[in-house]
TrEMBL record:
Gene3D superfamilies: MetI-like. The chain crosses the membrane at residues 35-57, 105-129, 136-158, 164-183, 222-245, 265-287. PROSITE patterns: ABC_TM1. This is ABC transporter permease. PANTHER family: D,D-DIPEPTIDE TRANSPORT SYSTEM PERMEASE PROTEIN DDPC-RELATED, OLIGOPEPTIDE TRANSPORT SYSTEM PERMEASE PROTEIN APPC. It comes from Jiangella anatolica. Pfam families: BPD_transp_1, OppC_N. GO terms for biological process: transmembrane transport. Its main location: membrane. One of its GO terms (cellular component) is plasma membrane. SUPFAM superfamilies: MetI-like (SSF161098).
């Protein structure tokens, strides 16, 4: 038997294992993967910062402890009293970055959950019923995917008005077709499995088959995609806030809005862009690292 045939046989045997065993194997692989552990550590760090913001930040996000230190030509940078410096209004930059973790993570998580819920609903309908239902849903998905995601998000957020909810809804909508197509493909692949054919042959109804067998065995790639989507959602939220489509209240600390407010001061106060920018990069990197390793742990092609 050739090497390719052996690999194909091994992969097919792994695919036939119960979903619970595959998840246990994936969990074992993740616990031994240093990249996954680093990604999880970064995520846990930002979550703790968001939860403990009132205890970590020395000032309220709208407090102006350095107002008297600001001049038209001087915005103080990092110091012992203000670790990340001050912004143009005399607010402590470290406190605003810390509180900004709450807003950025909240937008990313809520947008991903809404998008995943919408995508799962469409994916289940398309994958379970097939035929005309599948054709109609997939054509809608194709139309949505044909429009650049960021362009659609900008249009939706602009129509809804500047607010964090507008950003959440806009990001959620552009991710619905991604989840829908992924789940539909997984469910169609599962419909031909032996256990589904056996259940149909003994007269089990469609609903128990879909909800009790096909869906549980199709959901793992969707969870992986949700982890990766969180990373892009944080970046997209920052981009929309940078364009002025986020919260209309300038007192609300949000990393993208903080970047937008520093454009006039980049030459004299580059620290105002560096700290929120690096926070966006590290937070997105954590979700990306964990998501990529989670995909490798679940995908049979990467199992040994």
């Amino acid at each position: 038997m050739s090497l390719s045939e052996i690999e194909a046989t091994t992969e097919s045997e792994q695919l036939e294992q119960p979903a619970g065993n595959l998840r246990k194997e994936a969990w074992k692989r993740l616990r031994r993967d240093p990249v996954a552990l680093v990604g999880f550590g970064l995520i846990a760090f930002f979550v703790l910062v968001a939860i403990l913001a009132p205890l970590i930040a020395p000032y309220a996000p709208d407090a102006q402890p350095g107002r008297g230190m600001i001049t038209p030509t001087n915005i103080p940078g990092p110091s012992a009293d203000h670790w990340f410096g001050l912004d143009a209004s005399g607010r402590d930059e470290f406190s605003r970055v810390v509180y900004g973790a709450r807003q950025s993570l909240l937008v990313g998580v809520v947008a991903t959950l809404i998008g995943m819920a919408g995508g799962l609903s469409l994916g289940v309908l398309a994958g379970a019923f097939g035929g005309k239902v599948d054709a109609v849903i997939m054509r809608i998905v194709d139309v949505m995917l044909s429009i650049p995601g960021l362009l659609m998000a900008i249009a939706i957020a602009a129509l809804l008005g500047a607010s964090l909810w507008s950003v959440m809804i806009a990001i959620a909508i552009i991710n619905i077709p991604v989840f829908a197509r992924l789940l539909r493909g997984q469910m169609l692949a599962q419909r031909g499995s032996d256990y589904v054919v056996a259940a149909v042959s003994i007269g089990v109804r469609r609903r128990p088959i879909v909800l009790g067998h096909i869906l549980p065995n199709s959901i793992s790639p969707v969870i992986v995609q949700a982890t990766l989507t969180l990373a892009t959602a944080i970046i997209e939220a920052a981009g929309l806030s940078f364009l002025g489509l986020g919260s209309a209240d300038p007192r609300v600390p949000e990393w993208g809005r903080m970047l937008a407010d520093t454009q006039r001061y980049l030459a004299s106060a580059p620290h105002l862009a560096f700290f929120p920018g690096i926070a966006i990069v590290i937070a997105a990197l954590g979700f990306t690292m964990l998501g990529e390793r989670l995909r490798e742990a679940i995908d049979p092609k990467y199992r040994r």
